[in-house]
Amino acid sequence: MVKVNEKVEVHDVEVLKWARELIESSPSYHVAGNEVVHSVDKNEIWRGEECLNLLAPEAPTSSIVRKLLSSEVGIRAAEGHIGPKQRWFAGTKYIDEIEALCMELLKKAFRVNYADHRLIASMIGNMAVYATMTEPGDPIMSMNQPFGGHSSNRLDGPAGIRGLDIHNIPMDPFELGVDLTEFEKVAREVKPKLVTLGASMTLFPFPVKEMHDIISEWDGKIFFDGAHQLGLIGAGMFQDPLKEGASVLTGSAGKTFSGPQSGIILWDEAEITEPLTDTIFPALAATHQVNRVAALAVSAAEFLAYGKEYMGQIVSNAKALGKALNDRGVTVLGAHKDYTETHQVIVDVSEYGGGYDVAQRLAEANIITNKNLIPKDRPEDWDEPSGLRIGTTEMTRYGMKEQEMEYTADLIVSLLEKKENAEQVKEKVVAFRRSFNKIHYCFED
Ligand SMILES: *Cc1c(COP(=O)(O)O)cnc(C)c1O
């Protein structure tokens, strides 16, 4: 129970205090505003130019995409569906062009009948799916966090908010995939209306077709949350869930797809078009940031032009990094299956102090990764899990190839095994980054 006048704060109180004091001690609000710009500039130099960015959910956008994100159209109101009769506001003739181009480019990039461009985040796409395809109390199945499951499909995310009865998809901790035999048993008992596949920690494809065949008996549907794999799916580098039986696919535009951070939703079936589109608007999106839609459209065009080559290199680099780490004595998950079929490499760092500690130490040396739960952890080990997740998207777009993955592994291992301290490794990282500062696989500005 919160008492009267008690202050509750979820955020770190020290950081908030820092900001409050800075604002209070600024001679004017103009100066306070400049402090924001100063923080942005510091981040741009540090993360943008001096770090080895190996965070799996990140990707650098091209300079055209970045310019579009600050374009004039970003102040325009355009809620509704495309076309003059479908919107509340007049003055949208060029906005209709932008949005129609975006939608058609997305359909082409993913070879689908329907796409929507109005999701501010992929989380909202997942909410749209649960709102459209389930009723409160319905049973669904999704993966739990130690196997890579994401909060959006669990109790603490949109699936929980919808009041769904969530069951675990049985997983094989060694093969890092679905245990089909167990799945069939549990599914026959639970009779899920929806089975959600896709994950934040994602190395290998899922048996979409086999699972679809099982749940079709009671008309269960597959929803594929391809937040991470979206670009790989578009480029044909990963399984194509919609062609294997999934009814709907959501994804993050800013992960492997390498567009502006936001969400994309894709489907082929005519029957879900109206309910899904009518949930996106007017339920979950109103002002959907047309500057972002323009940026997304150009990202899709860049993806159509360069996606195959770019996504192929991401996966080759991830395999090379997995092997290089394994060769240097680090425990890499999925080593018996060539490490990965995505942009991710997952390592067990429990012998080096665990995921939290290792990620913090690497960050001191300008190597940016994240702690991650792995199958041997429990969901409640979230603060101090055993794993580390490494992604190759960003450094691939900066031009790195397999050879650079060897050196990346050297830097990581040198720090893990304390052959060098963070300061020494950092110096090498900064020098290394100097040769990789141009964005590839995009249109010239
Ligand atoms: C990142 C992620 C999301 C959320 O995507 P946002 O675009 O950040 O909203 C949803 N599901 C999975 C599996 C993810 O990894």
What does this structure look like?
The protein is α/β, with parallel strands linked by helices and 445 residues long. The protein contains 15 helices and 15 strands. Helix 9 links the parallel strand 8 and strand 9 (248-252). The radius of gyration is 22 Å and the shape is globular. The mean pLDDT is 97. The protein binds pyridoxal-5'-phosphate.
Counting DSSP H or I runs of 4 or more residues, the number of helices is 15
Largest sheet: 7 strands, mixed
Uncertain regions spanning at least 5 consecutive residues: none
Helix content: 40-55%
Strand percentage lies at: 5-15%
Q: C-alpha Rg, in Å?
A: 22 Å
In which order are the strands of the major sheet placed? 2-10-9-8-7-3-4
Bound molecules: pyridoxal-5'-phosphate
Class computed from helices, strands and strand pairing: alpha/beta
How would you spell out the order of helices and strands? HHEHHEHEHEEEHEHEHEEHHEEHEEEHHH
Q: Give me the count of strands.
A: 15
The N- to C-terminal Cα distance equals: 56 Å
Average of the residue pLDDT scores: 97
Q: What sort of overall outline do the alpha carbons produce when their principal axes are compared?
A: globular
